[in-house]
Amino acid sequence: PKMECSHFESCLDEDSSTSYVQCRGLALSTSNNQALMEVTTNFKVQENAVDVSLLVQPKKVLHNLQSLPRIGCCFELLPELFHITYFGSGAHENYPDRKSSAQMGLWSSTPAEMHVDYVVPSENGSRTDCSWVSFLNNDGTGLLIVSNGGFFSFSASLWSQDELDKANHTSDLECRQNGESGVH
Fold first, then answer.
1. Block means of pLDDT (10 residues each) for the chain, length 184 residues?
2. Which of 3, 11, 65, 142 could form a disulfide with 136 if both were Cys (CB 3.0 to 4.6 A apart)?
3. How far apart are CA 84 and CA 135, in angstroms?
4. 115 burial level (CB within 10 Å; 0-12, 13-18, 19+)
5. Do residues 124 and 116 touch, judged by C-beta distance below 8 A?
């Protein structure tokens, strides 16, 4: 599906130096351009924090699909932010439908360590039931993502989702090490 922005709004609260941005769009199916869902993304940008919220409103056409589309956010972080610490299910790859052997705890990893070398490359390395995750550089500075209620899942990869989707075999992926390219 592709996203089409139907409404964009931003404002600045000069008293608190806080910016507010809202983007409302439709996720369109690729085959017949029917809207699958409406997604409203709100950003509250402060001096040292960004609060992101997503509201997803499904459309009735989703009932006719064989499988549900993925919903989430993708970011590319600076290459040096490869030291990952999180509180959630680990220490190995886990997903909502197969996580019974994972244990809740404080875990540390890197994108290279999180990668699962499937014969046909695909999404991998997910960690579920997370309340926070940090991506730090060698000096211990970086990015902290915190849930403001509930849990979230995340993965970190040396390859973008697009690169994984286009690869037919592991040999199609460029060899990469932590710190050499962006963290996806």
1. 86 91 84 85 90 90 80 91 98 94 97 96 96 98 93 96 94 96 97
2. 142
3. 5
4. buried
5. yes
